[in-house]
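May I ask you to comment on the folded chain given beneath this request?
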Amino acid sequence: MKKFIISAATIYMIILSFSFGLNAAADSDVKYSRILNETTAFYDESKEILFYLPYSYYVKVISVGSTYTSVSYQGGNGIIPVIEGYIKTENLNIVKVTPSNPYPDTTVMTKSADTLFSDSDLSLPKTIISSKSSAYYYGKKTDTSGEDLIYVYCNKYIGYMRKSAFGTFTLALNSDPIETDSGNSESDKESESVVKNTLGDSLQIFIIVGISVIAISIVYLLFRPSGKVKDEVISKYNEEDE
């Protein structure tokens, strides 16, 4: 019995270690998607557009979905807060390497005092920003009246400000060269990413279940009582019963 317990425990630890290794490998497989058009929107939880992401930069992929992909953005320099949201899966352009500077590290200076708002309708003011204040850039949007807005982090607040409150600035392109896949269309890459994600999860589950079944079978074959042992147990039981 002691041998059985030790063997079963050993097999269980092998399965557990293998499973942990698969999960660790999956967790370390961080992917980035590059913004390769000017109309890639960053959505909030309710799938409303927060702003449009800057061309040539990146978002970190959290989970690929059929319509929307969960991503995180900014926070690379340790100063600008990380925000999580979504982009449309059709806009995925997953790169093969980890970019050295995935997010824009751009500060813009206010030329006049203005208000920072929570919403792009400019109906929910958060705070007054004084002139000559530095703000970190996330993205841009146009409000319902047609005024250009930028989404910023300023004075420990995140929100919208009128672009006209800032001096002239130009957002430089990311220095990474833009790679193109000559043989794949954007829809092909989208389908490939979704399929790989789904197949990877399914394969992991299949492997773990398969190893578990094999382990249980081995334990059964090693420790099942032979016919002779069964007869002796039954005979002993009958003798004790008499």
In short: Residues 72 and 116 are 23 Å apart (CA to CA). The helical segments are 2-28, 186-223, 227-241. The chain has three helices and twelve strands. The radius of gyration is 29 Å.
